[in-house]
Structures are given as C-alpha cells and as structure tokens.
Amino acid sequence: MRFSGLRILKEGLTGNKGWAPHWRDPEPKAEYDAIIIGGGGHGLSTAYYLAKNHGMTNIAVLEKGYIGGGNVGRNTTVVRANYYLPGNQEFYSHSLKLWEGLEQELNYNAMMSQRGVINLFHSDGQRNAFVRRGNAMHAQGDDAILLDQDALRDLLPYLDYDNTRFPIYGGLLHPRGGTARHDAVAWGYARGADQRGVDIIQNCEVTGIDIEGGIVKGVQTTRGAIKAKKVGIVTAGRSGQVAAMAGMRLPIESHILQAFVTEGLKPCIDHVISFGMGHFYISQSDKGGLVFGGDLDFYASYAQRGNLPMMEHVMEAGMTLMPMIGKARVLRSWGGIMDMTPDGSPIIDKTETTGLFIDCGWCYGGFKAVPASGYAFAHLIAKEEPHETARGFRLDRFRDGYGLMDEEGTGSQHNLH
Description:
Number of strands: 18
Number of domains: 2
Radius of gyration: 21 Å
Oligomer: single chain
C-alpha cells in the first residue's frame, strides 16, 4: 500500500474502504537471527535499518504494549542538531539529515516541520556560550544564526523583554530544527520494517534473557521462549530493568519528564523556543495546541506521571517568558521515563555478553535521535563494530572516565542533564 495524493483522493471518494493495515500482526517464530527488545522509535528504526541497510529480515521487534505507547508517544516532538561537543555533534547532525529525507524514504507523513529552533540567552556569559556553540555548529556543517535583541524582537515580539530578573539579550537560531509528529514516526518505521519482512510483535513482554557460557541464546517472554543469535536492548527508561535480566547494572537513572498541551489556538508561535533561564521550551502543534515542557522531576521513578510542584515550576517559567499564554487552558499532561546517564550522552555499544547489545541513556535527546540511533545500532548489531557517528557512545567510559561527553557541563549527577 503506497500513499499518494491520488490514493487519498480515491479513498475519500469511495468511503475509505481500500486501506489495509499498516503492518502485520504475526505470531512469534521459534527463532530469529536478531531480536530487538522495545518497539519504540529507536527499536523500530533499528529493525528498519537492519533490514534496509544490512539485509537482515529474520528479525522480531518485541513490544510489551502497543506501538506508540511508550516514550515515542510521550515527548515534545523537537528535532534539532545544535550540539557543541565532538561526538554528539556528528551524531545529531547525521540524525537531522536522516530526518530531512525520512518522509520520502518511508512514504509516510511524519509531519516534519523545519520551523526553526531558537535558544534564548539572558546574560553576557550565556551569549558567549552560544557564540561558541554556533561556531561549533558551523564547523560541523550545520546552520546557526546569532540574533541580537532587535532581530529577536522582529521574530518573537510577544516575549517579555522588560523582565528585570531575566532580561532577554538575544538568541541562537537553528533554522533547520523544528518538530515532527511523534507517533507518526513510530508508525512510519513500523510500516517500513514490516514491508521488509520484520515481525512486529505487540503485547509481548520480555521476562528473561537466556545466556549460556557468556553467549546470548534468546529471550523468555509472556508469549513463550524465543531463540535468537543476537539481542538488542532498546527500552529507554526501562533499560536498567531489562539489562538486569542479563546480570548487568547500567550507569543510568530513570526520571520523569512532564509535558503539557493546551487547547487549540490560532497560529501564534512559529518556532520552537527555549528559555535559557527557566528550562522551558514551547512550540505550537499543527492542531493549534501549545506543546511545552521543562525540567525533570528530580527523583528517580518509573511512573508515567509527574508531580504538581514541577508542573507549577514549568508554568511559572512559561509565564515569565511569554505572559500572553496565561489564559490558555491546559488540556492534558503526560510523563515520559527518561534514562539518564552521568554525562548526559547516550550509550550504543556491545555488552560483555556475546551477541547482546545495548542502546540507552538518551536523557532529553531521545526523539531527535530516533533515525540516527537506529542507523548506528543496526550497524553495530550487523557488523559488531560501531558506526562512525557513534564511536564515542561507549559503555566503558563510565568505568574508566575516558571519553565522557558532558554536553551541558553539569558534572556527573544524572538528574542535572
């Protein structure tokens, strides 16, 4: 089933009776060449690129719930490549390039909108930091434009420029950044992987990982035992729990990140805007809702909900930055489980168990990394060597301290990243 304007017109005129399911609902086989634990964006993109780039089709993606029900459906949809440190820079630049061709490649509308991401700065020190970041982005080949206050006023006249406590000095504009539709990304990758022979098995929770003599042999699930030569763990905030089934203790903590959406409004915010002094970020969806978020809830938790004090903190930051949103009614909120590493950068690596691989620790960066994460993890699983864009995401850097990538310079405390 191929999507096109003509097909949509035809189905609209014939009662939409010709649409087929986007992917199959197969029963698990007894054995696969590779099993991907986790049917979120990263797991589905891994399966897709294993099939597309490496010709591996005897693959299963095991999802304990339904496709789109985890973190890939619980985020604020931001896509960007405005990183500063070598290692992160190359990776997210590669990811943005994949995003830019994703809809054509998957033949699926992911609602990619390159509306521009603007990071505000509120002091001379912050301005200098963003000058360095912008120069680093240019050196990497990405786009960055430094805006003074006058140029920023032309773009964002509704900000509170007279705030005495948090004066707005200007901003760094990343024009190619923007947003995409979170669940559509999961559906598009699921459909693409299925078309290449991958089995996507929902409502199939992994309850154990079978290891013999230091070699992975398969997994135990709620739908029976499944053998596999290779197993990839891509379970976001649940990575520590799943890795523990293989006797591993990962250097991550799981924290809740809340997000919010308001009632639909007329178009008023054309960019993604990040408040430099209150960790508040906001954009407007295609349906008109203001989508925004802020800091983590600063305690470890596996609950997909947050607490009221952090909700109040985020709302206060939003009102400080743009008082015009004060009368908008919040319709709903949700929480994603963030797997936080000590240096704020992810892990894509082999484990000490032969045939067992791990992709985790995405902190705040999980959604924007979906294409490149799957691309790099598929390369690692297929060739058993890291992709060039992900060579720095080693697991052992937390053991020896060599190669840490502290993008925000906040030290080794998980919840500060």
